[in-house]
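Quick entry between incubations.
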Amino acid sequence: MSAFFTGIGVIVSLELRQRVRTVAWYVLIGVFVALVALVTLLLSIAFGGFGAENSGGAIFSAIIYFVLLLGTLVAPALSGNAINGDRDAGTLATTQVTLVTTWQLILGKFLAAWVTALAFLAAAVPFLIYAALDGGISATAIIVSVLVLAFELGVVAAIGVGLSGILSRPLFSVAVSYLVVAALSVGTLIAFLLGGLAVQSDVRSTTTYAISYSPAGEPERCGPPQTTTYPVPRFDYFWGVLVANPYVLLADAVPTAYSAEGYPTDLFGNIKLGVRQAQLAPELTMTYNECSSDFYGSDFEIPREIVERTTPGWFVGVVIHLVLAVGALVYAWSRTRTPAAQLARGSRVA
Amino acid sequence: MTTSDSAAAGIVVEGVSRAFGEVKAVRAASFTAAAGTVTGLIGPNGSGKTTLMLMLASLLKPDAGHIKIAGFDPTVDTAAVRSRLGWMPDVLGSWSALTVRSTLQYTGRLYRQDRQTAAQRASELIDLVGLEALADSPTRVLSRGQKQKLSLARALVHDPAVLLLDEPASGLDPAARVELRTLVRRVASEGKTVLISSHVLAELDEMADSAVYLANGVTASKESVARARTGVRAWRIKSTDGAGLVRALNGAGFASDTLTQERGEVMVPLASEAEASALLATLVTGGVPINTFAPAVGDLEQTFLGLNAGDNS
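Done. Structure below.
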């Protein structure tokens, strides 16, 4: 077993030296650090400076999202040609004739891609510490958000490496990796919005207005009820699509901190609230009766209660992402295995 | 099948075929390469040489037939084969960002050598192939010939018992070719099996003990090789007295229209080596000053051309 991990270690080290550790890479990290510094500074000013109430949580969650955004933008470029790029460069077959196994090769390449994406998280750590020291975010929230972020970067790295083993052209596999990331990040959102708007329900609104008032201004007599109908989008049918969205998944997984009034204090909590509200079916019959006693009765719910009575979906998202990542790697393994029985059209082993 | 111990330790190929979709790259390949010998793999472009090499190198699965490398089947005991097999591909690829030394070290590590062994072996191989001056340069600065040397060194990292060299001489300068020949002969003299594919038949003639001829994915039979070998071939004769030579040849029964003259040399078609010996004796005793008397093409080329001529007819 230790020989297995030694082999993976050799591949990881080889990948990092051959593929990643270049001047361009250090420049990219430098640009990233500068951007995160700028974002932190602007957010600090926006929230009223260091020590302002709840500003730490807001800054922390914004930085985590920023790392997720940049990490998922960079990871496909670094991992999306890990296998087919080597085949094009003529270095894949010479590696495959050694005693390294196909699984060691694929897992080594995946780990190298993951480590590379995690370097962005590592580069953002000073800013995360600054935000954490600012207060307003719990230790659990810090740990969970960092773990989920690391997991998501791993998923993107696995999909990139997997596609580079499945598709034969590097340019195509990098593009498809980006499309998968886009489908998860933006596609789920579009599907959610379009689905909700396409399926609409009619709301019957019955309104009864007063026609005479007492001298005290109380309604005395009401007219006949008037009924109108209008359509509302049914997002509650489609909220499930969003569980596969990495940004939503992250927000949904992090335990939310609330203000004294029951409002979320960070970006994670607000996104979670928005997504959870989408689970609630709209009320399809509305009654407004000035003569009725519950005229002023509003069914307003404070956000904390909404979050607490709706369904968390993040672990379903985690399972979906895990299936995608593992599936991509297994498929890549079956396509890269040697001695090869079948080759894709127009491709060569060496 | 009767295989000697030395063949069992080398390469045994029996009825191997491999198709890519509709294209049958290798149709029926059978040969043995014994341990301690150098075998040439010869065939025109597109004859299936590289496909056969890839199957021997444990990268491609044959559709049918059996392969044994040092006694192991690459499709079954893949790891056992790989630990005994060195492969130099026809495609020159190298990790461009790594130095020559670390390329060899990493290759050793991929063969499960420990760090120290890999470092030591890398230094030995750098000396062996003569890349000392470039040992710590990144491989992207290497010329084609230097990459060939690196590729050869990489194939030797784990001291394999069977060595497959796909076009090893292409891109090498004459001095490097001589070094390659010496190296290949030395590897064979250590009891290892070497299979070399090459287009440069004269080159192989000097290195190879035997040859396997591949045409349209089929290895030529022993009989057709023997037939092609014994066909009429041209001999090159050169004399300081050109006119006297032609006269003497005419006298020996070679009409002028069967002779070809180029650059002061005369090409004479002869059916066998015995006939050549007899002609040389006649010319020398006839007082013609002979300074060159040799076959115009090497054994392998003669056979190769003979087999191709047989195919076309």
